[in-house]
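Quick start: what a row looks like.
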Amino acid sequence: MRNGIDTVEISRIEKLLGDLDEVALREFFSEEELNDAGRGSGPARAQKLAARFAAKEACCKLFPKEICLGAIEPYDFSVSRDGYGQPGIVPSERARAVMDRHRVSRISLSMTHTDTSATAIASTELGEVIVPWYGKFIYHLLPLRRRVVLENLRRVFGETLTETQITGIAQGFYAHLVKFLGEFLTLPFLSAAKKEKLIRIEGGEHLLAALGQGRGVLLLTGHFGNWEVSTVAGIAQFREYHGRFHFIRRPLKPKWFNDFVMRRFRQAGFGTLDKAGSLDEILELLEQNNIVVSIFDQFTVKKYGIPSEFFGHPAHTFKSLAVLAQFTGAPVIPSSSWREPDGTHVLLFEAPVGIVTEGRTRDIISVNTKRFNEVLERIILRHPEQWIWMHKRWKKVRED
Protein backbone atom coordinates (compact mmCIF):
# COMPACT_ATOMS: atom_id res chain seq x y z
CA MET A 1 0.00 0.00 0.00
CA ARG A 2 1.16 3.51 -0.81
CA ASN A 3 -0.17 6.76 0.61
CA GLY A 4 -0.36 10.28 -0.81
CA ILE A 5 -1.20 13.30 1.32
CA ASP A 6 -1.84 16.91 0.38
CA THR A 7 -3.04 20.09 2.07
CA VAL A 8 -4.65 23.04 0.27
CA GLU A 9 -5.20 26.50 1.71
CA ILE A 10 -8.88 27.38 1.45
CA SER A 11 -8.03 30.96 0.51
CA ARG A 12 -6.45 29.57 -2.67
CA ILE A 13 -9.77 28.01 -3.69
CA GLU A 14 -11.70 31.14 -2.71
CA LYS A 15 -9.53 33.10 -5.13
CA LEU A 16 -10.15 30.46 -7.82
CA LEU A 17 -13.90 30.77 -7.30
CA GLY A 18 -13.66 34.53 -7.57
CA ASP A 19 -11.60 34.47 -10.75
CA LEU A 20 -13.40 31.74 -12.74
CA ASP A 21 -16.97 31.20 -13.85
CA GLU A 22 -18.77 27.85 -13.64
CA VAL A 23 -17.66 26.77 -17.11
CA ALA A 24 -13.98 27.42 -16.39
CA LEU A 25 -14.22 25.59 -13.05
CA ARG A 26 -15.00 22.38 -14.97
CA GLU A 27 -11.34 22.32 -16.00
CA PHE A 28 -10.52 21.57 -12.35
CA PHE A 29 -13.62 19.82 -10.98
CA SER A 30 -16.17 17.33 -12.25
CA GLU A 31 -19.84 18.19 -12.49
CA GLU A 32 -20.56 15.94 -9.51
CA GLU A 33 -17.89 17.65 -7.40
CA LEU A 34 -19.30 21.08 -8.19
CA ASN A 35 -22.84 19.92 -7.37
CA ASP A 36 -21.76 18.31 -4.08
CA ALA A 37 -20.02 21.51 -3.03
CA GLY A 38 -23.14 23.53 -3.69
CA ARG A 39 -23.51 26.69 -5.73
CA GLY A 40 -22.67 30.27 -4.83
CA SER A 41 -19.46 31.58 -3.28
CA GLY A 42 -19.84 30.96 0.46
CA PRO A 43 -17.08 29.56 2.73
CA ALA A 44 -18.68 26.10 2.85
CA ARG A 45 -18.32 25.68 -0.90
CA ALA A 46 -14.67 26.75 -0.84
CA GLN A 47 -13.94 24.29 2.00
CA LYS A 48 -15.51 21.36 0.15
CA LEU A 49 -13.79 22.13 -3.12
CA ALA A 50 -10.48 22.62 -1.32
CA ALA A 51 -10.81 19.14 0.16
CA ARG A 52 -11.53 17.73 -3.29
CA PHE A 53 -8.58 19.56 -4.83
CA ALA A 54 -6.34 18.18 -2.08
CA ALA A 55 -7.66 14.69 -2.89
CA LYS A 56 -6.67 15.11 -6.56
CA GLU A 57 -3.18 16.24 -5.59
CA ALA A 58 -2.84 13.37 -3.10
CA CYS A 59 -3.73 10.88 -5.84
CA CYS A 60 -1.11 12.39 -8.12
CA LYS A 61 1.55 11.88 -5.45
CA LEU A 62 0.89 8.14 -5.67
CA PHE A 63 2.26 8.14 -9.23
CA PRO A 64 5.13 10.68 -9.37
CA LYS A 65 6.74 9.34 -12.55
CA GLU A 66 3.49 9.45 -14.52
CA ILE A 67 2.88 13.02 -13.34
CA CYS A 68 6.34 14.09 -14.52
CA LEU A 69 5.76 12.42 -17.91
CA GLY A 70 2.35 14.08 -18.29
CA ALA A 71 0.55 10.74 -18.42
CA ILE A 72 -1.94 11.98 -15.80
CA GLU A 73 -2.92 15.28 -14.20
CA PRO A 74 -4.98 16.24 -11.13
CA TYR A 75 -8.25 16.47 -13.09
CA ASP A 76 -7.87 12.77 -14.00
CA PHE A 77 -9.08 11.99 -10.46
CA SER A 78 -12.47 13.08 -9.17
CA VAL A 79 -14.25 12.58 -5.85
CA SER A 80 -17.61 10.83 -5.66
CA ARG A 81 -19.67 9.82 -2.65
CA ASP A 82 -21.52 6.54 -2.36
CA GLY A 83 -25.02 6.07 -0.97
CA TYR A 84 -23.66 6.24 2.58
CA GLY A 85 -21.74 9.47 1.97
CA GLN A 86 -18.35 7.74 1.91
CA PRO A 87 -15.96 9.53 -0.49
CA GLY A 88 -14.11 7.58 -3.16
CA ILE A 89 -11.95 8.27 -6.18
CA VAL A 90 -13.29 7.96 -9.72
CA PRO A 91 -10.33 7.81 -12.15
CA SER A 92 -10.46 8.97 -15.74
CA GLU A 93 -9.62 6.53 -18.52
CA ARG A 94 -5.99 7.72 -18.46
CA ALA A 95 -5.75 7.41 -14.69
CA ARG A 96 -7.36 3.96 -14.76
CA ALA A 97 -4.67 2.77 -17.19
CA VAL A 98 -1.93 4.06 -14.88
CA MET A 99 -3.56 2.39 -11.89
CA ASP A 100 -3.87 -0.88 -13.80
CA ARG A 101 -0.20 -0.79 -14.76
CA HIS A 102 0.61 -0.53 -11.05
CA ARG A 103 -2.07 -3.19 -10.31
CA VAL A 104 -3.96 -0.71 -8.11
CA SER A 105 -7.57 -1.86 -7.94
CA ARG A 106 -8.88 1.25 -6.21
CA ILE A 107 -7.85 4.33 -4.26
CA SER A 108 -9.42 4.88 -0.85
CA LEU A 109 -9.79 8.41 0.42
CA SER A 110 -10.00 10.41 3.63
CA MET A 111 -10.72 14.16 3.64
CA THR A 112 -10.98 16.79 6.35
CA HIS A 113 -10.78 20.56 6.65
CA THR A 114 -10.42 23.40 9.14
CA ASP A 115 -11.42 27.03 8.67
CA THR A 116 -8.17 27.72 6.81
CA SER A 117 -7.05 24.51 5.10
CA ALA A 118 -8.22 21.16 3.75
CA THR A 119 -6.29 17.89 3.84
CA ALA A 120 -6.75 14.60 1.98
CA ILE A 121 -5.05 11.22 2.25
CA ALA A 122 -5.21 8.81 -0.70
CA SER A 123 -4.27 5.15 -0.23
CA THR A 124 -3.83 2.46 -2.85
CA GLU A 125 -5.46 -0.94 -2.66
CA LEU A 126 -3.66 -3.51 -4.76
CA GLY A 127 -5.42 -5.92 -7.09
CA GLU A 128 -4.51 -9.59 -7.00
CA VAL A 129 -4.41 -12.28 -9.67
CA ILE A 130 -5.87 -15.46 -8.16
CA VAL A 131 -3.86 -18.33 -9.65
CA PRO A 132 -5.33 -21.86 -9.50
CA TRP A 133 -2.98 -24.78 -8.95
CA TYR A 134 -2.86 -25.79 -12.61
CA GLY A 135 -1.56 -22.35 -13.60
CA LYS A 136 1.40 -22.78 -11.25
CA PHE A 137 1.85 -26.39 -12.40
CA ILE A 138 2.12 -25.47 -16.09
CA TYR A 139 4.35 -22.48 -15.34
CA HIS A 140 6.89 -24.71 -13.60
CA LEU A 141 6.59 -28.04 -15.46
CA LEU A 142 5.10 -27.31 -18.92
CA PRO A 143 6.28 -23.76 -19.55
CA LEU A 144 5.13 -23.11 -23.12
CA ARG A 145 7.29 -20.16 -24.32
CA ARG A 146 7.80 -19.07 -20.71
CA ARG A 147 10.87 -17.02 -21.59
CA VAL A 148 8.88 -14.97 -24.12
CA VAL A 149 5.98 -14.56 -21.68
CA LEU A 150 8.24 -13.24 -18.92
CA GLU A 151 10.20 -10.97 -21.27
CA ASN A 152 6.97 -9.41 -22.52
CA LEU A 153 5.58 -8.97 -19.01
CA ARG A 154 8.80 -7.36 -17.81
CA ARG A 155 8.70 -5.02 -20.79
CA VAL A 156 5.26 -3.79 -19.71
CA PHE A 157 5.37 -4.08 -15.91
CA GLY A 158 9.11 -4.09 -15.14
CA GLU A 159 9.08 -0.54 -13.75
CA THR A 160 5.88 -0.83 -11.73
CA LEU A 161 5.66 -4.39 -10.35
CA THR A 162 7.95 -6.74 -8.43
CA GLU A 163 9.25 -9.93 -10.01
CA THR A 164 6.90 -11.90 -7.76
CA GLN A 165 3.90 -9.97 -9.09
CA ILE A 166 5.06 -10.48 -12.68
CA THR A 167 5.43 -14.20 -12.06
CA GLY A 168 1.89 -14.25 -10.65
CA ILE A 169 0.50 -12.71 -13.86
CA ALA A 170 2.45 -15.26 -15.91
CA GLN A 171 0.99 -18.12 -13.87
CA GLY A 172 -2.45 -16.59 -14.23
CA PHE A 173 -1.90 -16.49 -17.99
CA TYR A 174 -1.15 -20.23 -18.12
CA ALA A 175 -4.26 -20.92 -16.05
CA HIS A 176 -6.21 -18.81 -18.55
CA LEU A 177 -4.89 -20.97 -21.41
CA VAL A 178 -6.19 -24.11 -19.70
CA LYS A 179 -9.64 -22.58 -19.24
CA PHE A 180 -9.53 -21.28 -22.82
CA LEU A 181 -8.89 -24.77 -24.21
CA GLY A 182 -11.61 -26.35 -22.08
CA GLU A 183 -14.17 -23.74 -23.15
CA PHE A 184 -13.13 -24.07 -26.79
CA LEU A 185 -13.69 -27.83 -26.75
CA THR A 186 -17.00 -27.80 -24.87
CA LEU A 187 -18.63 -24.82 -26.60
CA PRO A 188 -20.02 -26.80 -29.59
CA PHE A 189 -21.93 -29.08 -27.21
CA LEU A 190 -23.72 -26.29 -25.34
CA SER A 191 -27.33 -25.46 -26.12
CA ALA A 192 -28.22 -22.04 -27.50
CA ALA A 193 -29.69 -21.07 -24.11
CA LYS A 194 -26.50 -22.03 -22.25
CA LYS A 195 -24.35 -20.16 -24.76
CA GLU A 196 -26.45 -17.06 -24.20
CA LYS A 197 -26.09 -17.36 -20.42
CA LEU A 198 -22.35 -17.86 -20.79
CA ILE A 199 -21.70 -14.32 -22.00
CA ARG A 200 -22.99 -10.85 -21.14
CA ILE A 201 -22.88 -8.05 -23.70
CA GLU A 202 -22.13 -4.49 -22.58
CA GLY A 203 -22.00 -1.31 -24.65
CA GLY A 204 -23.99 -2.72 -27.53
CA GLU A 205 -25.52 0.72 -28.01
CA HIS A 206 -22.14 2.00 -29.23
CA LEU A 207 -22.06 -0.58 -32.00
CA LEU A 208 -25.66 0.06 -33.03
CA ALA A 209 -25.17 3.84 -33.04
CA ALA A 210 -22.08 3.44 -35.24
CA LEU A 211 -24.01 1.27 -37.69
CA GLY A 212 -26.69 3.94 -37.77
CA GLN A 213 -24.25 6.25 -39.54
CA GLY A 214 -24.46 3.99 -42.59
CA ARG A 215 -20.72 3.90 -43.38
CA GLY A 216 -19.98 0.47 -41.98
CA VAL A 217 -18.04 -0.18 -38.77
CA LEU A 218 -14.41 -1.07 -38.16
CA LEU A 219 -14.19 -3.17 -34.99
CA LEU A 220 -10.83 -2.80 -33.20
CA THR A 221 -10.00 -5.86 -31.14
CA GLY A 222 -7.33 -8.38 -30.19
CA HIS A 223 -6.74 -11.69 -28.44
CA PHE A 224 -8.51 -10.78 -25.21
CA GLY A 225 -10.13 -13.29 -22.88
CA ASN A 226 -11.58 -16.22 -24.78
CA TRP A 227 -12.04 -14.52 -28.14
CA GLU A 228 -13.52 -17.65 -29.71
CA VAL A 229 -16.27 -17.82 -27.08
CA SER A 230 -16.94 -14.08 -27.34
CA THR A 231 -17.41 -14.31 -31.11
CA VAL A 232 -19.40 -17.50 -31.40
CA ALA A 233 -21.53 -17.10 -28.26
CA GLY A 234 -21.45 -13.32 -27.91
CA ILE A 235 -21.65 -11.63 -31.27
CA ALA A 236 -24.12 -14.30 -32.38
CA GLN A 237 -26.62 -12.64 -30.02
CA PHE A 238 -26.85 -9.74 -32.48
CA ARG A 239 -29.25 -11.83 -34.54
CA GLU A 240 -30.40 -8.90 -36.63
CA TYR A 241 -26.82 -8.58 -37.90
CA HIS A 242 -26.33 -12.24 -38.74
CA GLY A 243 -23.98 -12.48 -41.70
CA ARG A 244 -22.72 -8.90 -41.33
CA PHE A 245 -19.63 -9.53 -39.15
CA HIS A 246 -16.48 -10.21 -41.18
CA PHE A 247 -13.15 -11.03 -39.53
CA ILE A 248 -9.79 -10.14 -41.05
CA ARG A 249 -7.50 -12.93 -39.92
CA ARG A 250 -4.51 -15.00 -40.86
CA PRO A 251 -4.91 -18.73 -41.55
CA LEU A 252 -4.18 -20.77 -38.43
CA LYS A 253 -1.77 -23.66 -38.20
CA PRO A 254 -2.07 -26.58 -38.57
CA LYS A 255 -4.54 -26.60 -41.46
CA TRP A 256 -6.98 -29.01 -39.78
CA PHE A 257 -7.28 -26.60 -36.84
CA ASN A 258 -7.85 -23.65 -39.17
CA ASP A 259 -10.56 -25.60 -41.02
CA PHE A 260 -12.23 -26.47 -37.70
CA VAL A 261 -12.26 -22.83 -36.51
CA MET A 262 -13.41 -21.49 -39.88
CA ARG A 263 -16.24 -24.01 -40.02
CA ARG A 264 -17.41 -22.88 -36.57
CA PHE A 265 -17.25 -19.26 -37.71
CA ARG A 266 -19.33 -19.93 -40.81
CA GLN A 267 -21.91 -21.86 -38.81
CA ALA A 268 -22.21 -18.86 -36.48
CA GLY A 269 -22.83 -16.59 -39.49
CA PHE A 270 -19.44 -14.85 -39.64
CA GLY A 271 -17.43 -14.08 -42.74
CA THR A 272 -13.65 -14.28 -42.87
CA LEU A 273 -11.20 -12.19 -44.89
CA ASP A 274 -7.53 -12.83 -45.59
CA LYS A 275 -5.15 -10.17 -44.23
CA ALA A 276 -3.55 -9.92 -47.67
CA GLY A 277 -5.40 -9.04 -50.87
CA SER A 278 -8.85 -8.30 -49.40
CA LEU A 279 -8.98 -4.51 -49.78
CA ASP A 280 -11.64 -4.41 -52.50
CA GLU A 281 -13.83 -6.85 -50.58
CA ILE A 282 -13.44 -4.86 -47.36
CA LEU A 283 -14.40 -1.60 -49.07
CA GLU A 284 -17.47 -3.24 -50.59
CA LEU A 285 -18.52 -4.64 -47.21
CA LEU A 286 -18.20 -1.21 -45.56
CA GLU A 287 -20.19 0.41 -48.37
CA GLN A 288 -22.95 -2.11 -47.59
CA ASN A 289 -22.83 -1.01 -43.90
CA ASN A 290 -21.29 -4.22 -42.63
CA ILE A 291 -18.91 -4.74 -39.70
CA VAL A 292 -15.26 -5.52 -40.43
CA VAL A 293 -13.30 -6.88 -37.46
CA SER A 294 -9.58 -6.02 -37.27
CA ILE A 295 -7.48 -8.16 -34.90
CA PHE A 296 -4.89 -5.52 -34.20
CA ASP A 297 -2.59 -6.74 -31.41
CA GLN A 298 0.00 -8.70 -33.40
CA PHE A 299 3.37 -7.95 -34.94
CA THR A 300 3.43 -7.42 -38.70
CA VAL A 301 6.18 -7.35 -41.29
CA LYS A 302 7.49 -4.15 -42.85
CA LYS A 303 5.34 -4.53 -45.99
CA TYR A 304 2.03 -4.28 -44.11
CA GLY A 305 2.90 -2.08 -41.17
CA ILE A 306 4.44 1.11 -39.88
CA PRO A 307 6.68 1.87 -36.88
CA SER A 308 4.64 2.67 -33.79
CA GLU A 309 4.74 2.19 -30.03
CA PHE A 310 3.12 -0.38 -27.80
CA PHE A 311 3.48 0.14 -24.04
CA GLY A 312 6.23 2.66 -24.74
CA HIS A 313 8.38 0.33 -26.84
CA PRO A 314 8.85 0.24 -30.63
CA ALA A 315 6.36 -2.16 -32.19
CA HIS A 316 5.67 -2.55 -35.90
CA THR A 317 1.91 -2.29 -36.32
CA PHE A 318 -0.64 -2.88 -39.08
CA LYS A 319 -1.41 0.34 -40.95
CA SER A 320 -4.51 -0.99 -42.71
CA LEU A 321 -6.99 0.01 -39.99
CA ALA A 322 -5.83 3.64 -39.96
CA VAL A 323 -5.94 3.76 -43.77
CA LEU A 324 -9.46 2.33 -43.89
CA ALA A 325 -10.69 4.69 -41.15
CA GLN A 326 -9.25 7.72 -42.92
CA PHE A 327 -10.54 7.03 -46.40
CA THR A 328 -13.93 5.44 -45.66
CA GLY A 329 -15.05 7.50 -42.65
CA ALA A 330 -16.19 4.29 -40.94
CA PRO A 331 -16.17 4.68 -37.13
CA VAL A 332 -13.67 2.56 -35.21
CA ILE A 333 -15.28 0.78 -32.24
CA PRO A 334 -13.02 -0.95 -29.66
CA SER A 335 -14.23 -4.38 -28.58
CA SER A 336 -12.86 -6.70 -25.91
CA SER A 337 -13.86 -9.67 -23.80
CA TRP A 338 -12.80 -11.20 -20.51
CA ARG A 339 -13.71 -14.03 -18.20
CA GLU A 340 -15.29 -13.21 -14.86
CA PRO A 341 -14.36 -15.12 -11.66
CA ASP A 342 -17.61 -17.11 -11.89
CA GLY A 343 -16.63 -18.47 -15.33
CA THR A 344 -19.00 -16.29 -17.36
CA HIS A 345 -17.72 -13.88 -20.00
CA VAL A 346 -18.26 -10.23 -20.85
CA LEU A 347 -18.19 -8.83 -24.39
CA LEU A 348 -17.71 -5.06 -24.32
CA PHE A 349 -18.17 -2.51 -27.10
CA GLU A 350 -16.79 0.95 -26.33
CA ALA A 351 -17.37 4.43 -27.71
CA PRO A 352 -15.67 5.19 -31.05
CA VAL A 353 -12.01 6.13 -31.10
CA GLY A 354 -11.41 9.77 -32.03
CA ILE A 355 -9.84 9.81 -35.49
CA VAL A 356 -7.46 12.49 -36.77
CA THR A 357 -8.41 13.49 -40.33
CA GLU A 358 -6.36 16.62 -41.09
CA GLY A 359 -2.70 16.87 -42.05
CA ARG A 360 -0.32 14.84 -44.16
CA THR A 361 -1.52 11.32 -44.90
CA ARG A 362 1.60 9.77 -43.39
CA ASP A 363 1.15 11.72 -40.16
CA ILE A 364 -2.58 10.92 -39.97
CA ILE A 365 -1.90 7.19 -40.30
CA SER A 366 0.86 7.34 -37.69
CA VAL A 367 -1.20 9.27 -35.11
CA ASN A 368 -4.31 7.11 -35.52
CA THR A 369 -2.30 3.88 -35.36
CA LYS A 370 -0.74 5.04 -32.09
CA ARG A 371 -4.23 5.83 -30.75
CA PHE A 372 -5.40 2.34 -31.63
CA ASN A 373 -2.42 0.84 -29.81
CA GLU A 374 -3.17 2.98 -26.76
CA VAL A 375 -6.73 1.63 -26.71
CA LEU A 376 -5.38 -1.92 -26.77
CA GLU A 377 -2.97 -1.09 -23.94
CA ARG A 378 -5.83 0.04 -21.70
CA ILE A 379 -7.80 -3.10 -22.52
CA ILE A 380 -4.87 -5.42 -21.75
CA LEU A 381 -4.11 -3.71 -18.44
CA ARG A 382 -7.64 -4.36 -17.15
CA HIS A 383 -7.12 -8.15 -17.22
CA PRO A 384 -3.45 -8.72 -18.02
CA GLU A 385 -3.52 -12.46 -17.37
CA GLN A 386 -6.05 -12.87 -20.21
CA TRP A 387 -3.89 -11.66 -23.12
CA ILE A 388 -1.51 -13.69 -25.33
CA TRP A 389 1.84 -12.88 -23.72
CA MET A 390 3.53 -15.70 -25.65
CA HIS A 391 3.23 -13.68 -28.89
CA LYS A 392 6.44 -11.87 -29.96
CA ARG A 393 4.80 -8.47 -30.29
CA TRP A 394 8.04 -6.45 -30.17
CA LYS A 395 10.11 -8.26 -32.78
CA LYS A 396 12.59 -6.30 -34.85
CA VAL A 397 11.58 -5.59 -38.44
CA ARG A 398 13.70 -7.17 -41.13
CA GLU A 399 14.98 -4.50 -43.53
CA ASP A 400 15.40 -6.77 -46.58
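That is the whole record. Residues 192-386 form one domain. The chain is about 45% helix and 20% strand.
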